Amino acid sequence: MNLLPKSCQEFGSVDYWEKFFQQRGRRAFEWYGSYLELCGVLHKYIKPREKPRRNGKRTGRSSGLLTLQRTSPQPQGSPLTSYLCCEHHKAMIAGLALLRNPELLLETPLALLVVGLGGGSLPLFVHDHFPKSCVDAVEIDPSVLEVATQWFGFSQSDRMKVHIADGLDYITSLAGRE
Predict the structure, then answer these.
(1) Cα(72)–Cα(131) distance, rounded to whole angstroms?
(2) DSSP string, the chain
(3) What pTM value is reported for the model?
(4) Do 79 and 1 share a structural domain?
(5) How does pLDDT run across 3-14, given as a tens digit for each residue?
(6) Residue 77's pLDDT band (cuts 50, 70, 90)
(7) Given this model, what pLDDT does residue 47 score?
(8) Is the N or the C terminus of the chain less surrounded, counting Cβ atoms within 10 Å?
(9) Residue 134: beta bridge partners?
(10) What total of structural domains would you count in the chain?
(11) How far is Cα 113 from Cα 109, in angstroms, rounded to an integer?
(12) What is the residue range of 153's domain?
């Protein structure tokens, strides 16, 4: 069953979406396509509040669920760490508000484990916005760390370490220490 739109115009039509959800039902799906081709339609539904940097230029995108101040100024051309591009990252950060005394989060030492580094945006966000946090990321593939460092501006520090290991094995070893 092909649920992909035939054109940008179809992607933006109400009829397309009604048919899409009717045919898809409750089945999960993944969707790959050209962002540049569909971004005009996508951005109709995203309220731009911040302009993240991309290749040194500013582009309009949503700033996410939380408004936080960086703990240090952002140098020109450095990765933008105040923007969470993934909905699941936004949900994870919003979940921190459910902890006891969320108003003290910025002053509280947090130890966080991220399984799967990707481009490193989630660990960078936590590192920059929660100044007392220590972030450990576990990544099974060393080339992912290399790409995150070379292409996405990720860097390790005394408060942010990447462990090249299987995530489940790493968690099991942590549980064995306690």
Answers:
(1) 10
(2) ---S-SSHHHHT-HHHHHHHHHHHTT--------HHHHHHHHGGGS---B--EETTEE--B---S-----SSPPPTTS---S---SHHHHHHHHHGGGSSSGGGGGGS--EEEEE--TTSHHHHHHHHH-TT-EEEEEES-HHHHHHHHHHH----BTTEEEEES-HHHHHHHHHHH-
(3) 0.55
(4) no
(5) 666 776 776 777
(6) low
(7) 44
(8) C
(9) 111
(10) 2
(11) 13
(12) 46-177
One domain, residues 15 and 28: yes
Same domain, 53 and 38: no
Rounded Cα–Cα distance for residues 138 and 161 (Å): 9
Q: Determine the average pLDDT of the residues in 86-111.
A: 83
Tokens 């006891």, located at residue? 100
CA 67/CA 158 separation, integer angstroms: 25
170 and 115, same domain (yes or no): yes
* Contact between 127 and 157 (Cβ < 8 Å): yes
Which residues is 109 bridged to in the sheet? none
Rg of the chain in Å (alpha carbons): 19
- 19, 55: one domain: no
| Residues 31-51 pLDDT 10s | 555 556 656 655 555 444 444
Q: How far apart are CA 96 and CA 149, in angstroms?
A: 26
Shared domain for 108 and 63, answered yes or no, is yes
